[in-house]
Structures are given as C-alpha cells and as structure tokens.
Design a protein that fits this description.
The chain has about 220 residues and is of the alpha/beta class. It contains eight helices and eight strands; from the N terminus they run βββαβααααβαβαββα. The strands form two sheets. A six-stranded mixed beta sheet has the order 4-5-6-3-7-8, with helices on both faces. Strands 1-2 form a two-stranded antiparallel sheet. It is globular, with a radius of gyration of 18 Å. Keywords: ATP-binding, Nucleotide-binding.
Amino acid sequence: MSLTILDNETLGYGRTAVLSEVSFALAEGERVVLLGRSGAGKSTLLNAVHDRLAPAHRVALVPQDHALVPQLSVLRNVLMGRLDDHGALYNLTNLLRVRAGDRAGVAKVLEAVGLGPEIDRPVHALSGGQRQRVALARAWWRGGPVLIGDEPVSAVDETQAGVLLEQARSRFPTAMLALHDVGLARRFATRLVGIRRGAILFDAAPEDLSDAEIAALYAG
C-alpha cells in the first residue's frame, strides 16, 4: 500500500521551482535512498513526502541541520521526539524534572547510538558527529512506522554509519533517506532514486543499477 503519492507535481520554495513534474510514491516496507549532488532537490523531495505523511502517520524525522536546542541537555533534546504525545503541562514538568521512566528509556536509545555517558551534557558541548547521533536518538525515541532522514549519518565515520543504518532498518519498517555514500546506500536501500538538475533520473532497485548509471548523477 502506498503511504504517499506525488503526481506530476512541481516542488520548491515560494515561486522557485526545484523539482518539476515529479511523480513519486513511497510504499509500506520500502527503504528508499535519494542520491544526487548537493542542490539537486533531495531535501525538497524529502520535505514534500514528510508533509504528505505527517498528518496521517507517525513519522520520525532527522533533518539535515539536526534541529537541536544547543543550550539543553542531550536527555532533554531526545525527549522532544515525543512532545506531541502529551499535553503542554506534562511536557513542561517533564523538561524541568524528567520522569524516571522517560530518563531510563532515553538512556537506552543513547546507549544504542554510543552516547550513553553524554546524557546530561549540553548539546553545544558536543562534536558534530555526536550532535548528529543525538538527532538519531531523538528519532529512535519517537519511533513509529516511518523514518525520514536528510543525510542522517554524514558526520560519522563509515563504520558508525553502517551500524546506525542497521539500527534504522531494524527500528523502522519504512524509510526514506538522502545519503551521500553510495556504498551505504546500496546496502540499505530497496530502491535508489537518483536526482539530477531538478528531475528524477532513475528510480530502481540497487541491483538493477550499474555504478556508471549512479556516477552519471555526479558528473559535470
């Protein structure tokens, strides 16, 4: 069953078109990876799919800029993954004095991404790679059937990235990510979507695409 469909649509910001006449569907159980040069339109497509999905489905989001609050602790940033599960009073009191059960749950997802000891550190004191893992931990804490991530492992090494993507695979039945590492993309995806100059160049299973076809996305 398709979760979201774009039918011959033009996507962009304001009056600026980034992707023209795009048709796209994301089905339950798929792991779609977007490939292409910076500025090709990957983020635009991710945002459009997120906007279509979010009203009817629980979506865990890892934006490219992480969307963290630097002054707050790792613990409190991860807790924000479930803000919409509770009312304002619960959230306010929990941010002031975190409930034991929530702290234990967050500690577990932080251990999974290798940040257990950093639970009480302010985010501004972390490295870029650590901040990215906080954003991933927030998505793990949120949970749900769908993960959308914009370069969610770009700031960690390839080994860490592989581990984190395996966690994503096990935690989320459906995923749509933009990745810059083609090797990781091939291992994670059930579909690879190549975007070049504002258009989808290919949309196929990894085994049906040659290295040359993928390399053409980045040529010139």
